[in-house]
Each structure stands twice: as structure tokens, then as C-alpha cells.
UniProtKB/TrEMBL annotation:
<keyword id="KW-1133">Transmembrane helix</keyword>
<feature type="transmembrane region" description="Helical">
    <location>
        <begin position="116"/>
        <end position="136"/>
    </location>
</feature>
<feature type="transmembrane region" description="Helical">
    <location>
        <begin position="361"/>
        <end position="381"/>
    </location>
</feature>
<dbReference type="GO" id="GO:0005886">
    <property type="term" value="C:plasma membrane"/>
</dbReference>
<feature type="transmembrane region" description="Helical">
    <location>
        <begin position="393"/>
        <end position="422"/>
    </location>
</feature>
<keyword id="KW-0472">Membrane</keyword>
<comment type="similarity">
    <text>Belongs to the nucleobase:cation symporter-2 (NCS2) (TC 2.A.40) family. Azg-like subfamily.</text>
</comment>
<dbReference type="GO" id="GO:0005345">
    <property type="term" value="F:purine nucleobase transmembrane transporter activity"/>
</dbReference>
<dbReference type="InterPro" id="IPR045018">
    <property type="entry name" value="Azg-like"/>
</dbReference>
<feature type="transmembrane region" description="Helical">
    <location>
        <begin position="209"/>
        <end position="229"/>
    </location>
</feature>
<feature type="transmembrane region" description="Helical">
    <location>
        <begin position="259"/>
        <end position="283"/>
    </location>
</feature>
<feature type="transmembrane region" description="Helical">
    <location>
        <begin position="186"/>
        <end position="204"/>
    </location>
</feature>
<feature type="transmembrane region" description="Helical">
    <location>
        <begin position="148"/>
        <end position="166"/>
    </location>
</feature>
<dbReference type="InterPro" id="IPR026033">
    <property type="entry name" value="Azg-like_bact_archaea"/>
</dbReference>
<keyword id="KW-0812">Transmembrane</keyword>
<dbReference type="InterPro" id="IPR006043">
    <property type="entry name" value="NCS2"/>
</dbReference>
<dbReference type="Pfam" id="PF00860">
    <property type="entry name" value="Xan_ur_permease"/>
</dbReference>
Length: 451
């Protein structure tokens, strides 16, 4: 954390003093300069979502430019609300994992139209808002075992990595072995160089390593189709353009209200709720962002912002927004107040007009970022008690089934079911909370209705 000095912490302008008072900058032991720099650090660590989220949503049929505009808008609006209302240094943007669940499970897996899938996003946000407004989070936290919460994050991380490797052609289908290594052509070599360069920058702790990796891989892909015998992957179409709002208000709210879609809504609710909660708890521990009772600071307000961000995301045309663990980059720079989130929001806004520039980025350029995001999301695997089989097996099943079945929903469903069955047949009924019984029942309903 940057040390607080009189010069840095005592702005002379009345506006600066008002900002400092509103965000309690001095009270948190920081400075305006530190807060702004922390916002820049978080933005650099997470701006890959501006390109990666539309790349994933376009697989579901949402136009890339429309998904990009929606991504920027919701990131700006929700992060601004997090800063001004909840006053926490946390970024809220369309989440990795939620976009994969939306595209590869709801749309491509279950066959929902992207409009109906957006309706499921909306209703999950409504339920999230209800949970956030009422004091039920403690009961839910206690109901779902920690091992399964960690496992879901890890499983989604592996699933995202698998998608990245597939999108790059690094892994392809095989009749003999189901999957195998792709052909070593110019595209694959370019992806591998980009992936290794991105990994090295992550190891060296470059700020914005993922976005730098995307930019480098895009430059490496530019000669394809011109110098090598590949399709042209990078074509200039301009620097800036008006935002594309073609996906705005295309959400099918009432079409999503079918019994068969309830498991999908529940899974999106569960994933978003626990991701938000775990992010707030992790950041509060690492940066001492706690209230007088030792709980995460302004937790109810932060969860409310996250919930309404999910509701607003659907009408804008993107998957659910959620808190980003990359907010830790700003916290590590000394960020402690909502001014960090406001700074992040303002940095997102210009990209609303840069969709032609960002559409230059081909799939093999975003693939290294997906692989590395999987690495980051695998960190909680160390928190699972692998020596305790009754906790480890459901967690293992959830982790391994997500990439192998190409379905986040199936991984979660079988993780819940196996946990309940193991506790039931080993006489540990007291370990099954009511919410877990409901989760298992919904998992069975989902399996019966969709398979």
C-alpha cells in the first residue's frame, strides 16, 4: 500500500476535498492519487473482458459489436454504482463463467434462443436482488459446503480453459480419442506463442498482462492470409463508430418463465450469488475492508449493486454482471474506497465508441486470455480438503464434469447430488441443510427435463 503523505493526501481544490470526504479517503488511510492509480491497475487487469465477453457471447448469436457495447455499458454503470453507493473498490462487469454458462450451456447446450437465455439472466437477477435485500445470506452460506463452492469456481476455470484451447484449434475432435492436438499450422503456432508470452507476462506480474497478450497475439495473427496460407484473421475496419444497441431490450422475459428453465435460473443465481459473496469476503480479508463486526464492509449494499447489475445486464444484451476478483489488483496497489470503482467505470466508457478497433481481435488472440483466466480460477482447489473423501468426491465430480460434459450446469448438479447422497447413506443427515435438499431436488429436475 502506498504510504499516505501530507502532499498526497491533502488536495487544495474544494472539489478534491469534497471527493475525499465523500469516499472517506483519509479515514481509510489512503490518498486521492493512490485511489486513482488503484483504479487504473484494476482496469488494466480486467479490460480483457471488453473483447473476451463479446467473443463468447457471439457464439450464442449475439452480434459481436452489440455484445461489446452492452459489456462496456454494464461495466460502466455497475462499477459506478459500486463506487458511489456501496463505496467499495470493486469492479462489476460481465463475468467469466457466467458468459460461458449462458452460451455453452443455455444456448448451445439446451437449445434456448439467446433472447430467452437473457430472460433467465434477468430472473436470476431478480431473485438475487431479493436475497440481497433480505438477510438470508448467512443461511445460504452455511447450507452449501465450502468444498463445493471452491469446486464450482475451479470447474468453471477448467471449462473456460478448455473453451480457449478449442477456440484456438489447439484441441480438436477425434473419432479415436475424442479429443487430440490440432494441426501444427501458422494459426496454432501463433496461438502457442501468444499463450506463452501472456503466461510469462503474468509470471513477471505485468499490469494488464492479459490485454497485452491479446494485443501481441493480434499483431502476430495480422500476417495470416497475406504471408502464410491461412485465412485473413485481422482486417482494418476503422478506429471508432457509434455504439451498436441492436441487442438492447431483446430479452424475452416472459419466455424464460417455464418450469424447464427453472434449473438454469437457479444455477445462474447460485453461481452469481456465491461468486459475489466469495469475492467480497476474499477482498475484505486481504485489504481489511471490514466493518466493526468483522464482516465485509457495506456487504448488503455491494450485493444489492451486484444483483441489480445482473438484472440490468439482460435488457442491455449481455450475460450477468458480477464482481471481479481482479479487483484485487487495485487493492494490492492500496485502493480502499469507492473512488477506485468510479475510476474504473470512467476508464471503460471510451471503449463504447471503439468497437471497430476492438473487432480486429481474432479468436486465437482472446484464447490465451481464456486459458490464463482458467489458471486464476483454479486457485481455490488448494482450499478443498482432499483427505476427506466425503467432501472431496462431490468437489472432484463437480470440477471434472464441467469440462468433460461441456456443461457447467451438469457439473454443479452432480456435485450437489453426490454430496447429498453421500451424507444420506453415511448417516450424516444433520450435515444436509434445507437449501441443499432444495438444490439436489432442482438438480434432479434439471437432469430429467433437459436430458
Amino acid at each position: 500500500m502506498e504510504p499516505t503523505t501530507t502532499a498526497a493526501a491533502a488536495p487544495t481544490a474544494s472539489e478534491g476535498r469534497w471527493i475525499a470526504r465523500y469516499f472517506r479517503v483519509h479515514e481509510r488511510g489512503t490518498s486521492l492519487r493512490t485511489e486513482v492509480l488503484a483504479g487504473v491497475a484494476t482496469f488494466l487487469a480486467s479490460m480483457y473482458i471488453i473483447v473476451v465477453n463479446p467473443a463468447i457471447l457471439s457464439d450464442a448469436g449475439i452480434p459481436f459489436s452489440a455484445a461489446l457495447s452492452a459489456t462496456v455499458l454494464i461495466s460502466f454503470m455497475s462499477s459506478l454504482a459500486m463506487g458511489l453507493y456501496a463505496r467499495n473498490p470493486i469492479l462489476v462487469a460481465p463475468g467469466m463463467g457466467m458468459n460461458a454458462l449462458f452460451t455453452y450451456t443455455l444456448v448451445l447446450g439446451a437449445g434456448l434462443s439467446w433472447e430467452v437465455a437473457l430472460g433467465c439472466v434477468f430472473w436470476s437477477g431478480v431473485l438475487f436482488a431479493v436475497l440481497a435485500m433480505f438477510n438470508v445470506r448467512e443461511a445460504i452460506i452455511e447450507a452449501i459446503p465450502a468444498s463445493l463452492r471452491y469446486a464450482i469456481t475451479c470447474g468453471i476455470g477448467l471449462f473456460i480453459t478448455f473453451i480457449g484451447l478449442k477456440n484456438a484449434g489447439f484441441i480438436v475432435g477425434s473419432e479415436a480419442t475424442l479429443v487430440t492436438l490440432g494441426n501444427f499450422d501458422a494459426s496454432l503456432v501463433t496461438f502457442f506463442i501468444g499463450m506463452m508470452a501472456t503466461a510469462i507476462m503474468v509470471v513477471l506480474r505485468f499490469n494488464g498482462a492479459l490485454i497485452l497478450g491479446i494485443a501481441l497475439t493480434t499483431l502476430l495473427a495480422a500476417p495470416m492470409g497475406r504471408l502464410w496460407g491461412e485465412e485473413v484473421m485481422v482486417e482494418w475496419s476503422g478506429l471508432a463508430a457509434w455504439p451498436d444497441f441492436s441487442a438492447v431490450m431483446q430479452v424475452d422475459i416472459w419466455g424464460a418463465l417455464k418450469v424447464a428453465y427453472l434449473p438454469f435460473i437457479f444455477v445462474m443465481l447460485f453461481t452469481n450469488f456465491f461468486d459475489a459473496l466469495s469475492c467480497f469476503m476474499a477482498l475484505s480479508e486481504s485489504a481489511d475492508l471490514k466493518d466493526k463486526d468483522g464482516n465485509p464492509r457495506n456487504l448488503k449494499r455491494s450485493m444489492t449493486v451486484d444483483a441489480f447489475a445482473s438484472m440490468i445486464a439482460a435488457p442491455l444484451g449481455t450475460s450477468a454482471a458480477q464482481t471481479f476478483i481482479e479487483s484485487g489488483a487495485g487493492v494490492a496497489q492500496g485502493g480502499r474506497t469507492g473512488l477506485v470503482a468510479v475510476t474504473i467505470a470512467l476508464l471503460f466508457l471510451p471503449f463504447l465508441f471503439l468497437s471497430p478497433l476492438l473487432s480486429l481481435v481474432p479468436g486465437i488472440a482472446t484464447a490465451p486470455a481464456l486459458v490464463l483466466v482458467g489458471l486464476f480460477m483454479l486457485a481455490p482447489v488448494a482450499k478443498i480438503d482432499w483427505a476427506c473423501a466425503e467432501e472431496a468426491f462431490p468437489a472432484f465430480l463437480a470440477i471434472i464434469l464441467m469440462p468433460l460434459t461441456y456443461s457447467i450446469t451438469l457439473g454443479i448438479a452432480f456435485g450437489f447430488l453426490s454430496f447429498v447422497l453421500i451424507k444420506l447413506f453415511t448417516g450424516r443427515l444433520e450435515a444436509i441443510r434445507p437449501a441443499m435438499w432444495i438444490s439436489a431436488a432442482l438438480s434432479v429436475l434439471m437432469l430429467v427435463t433437459t436430458h
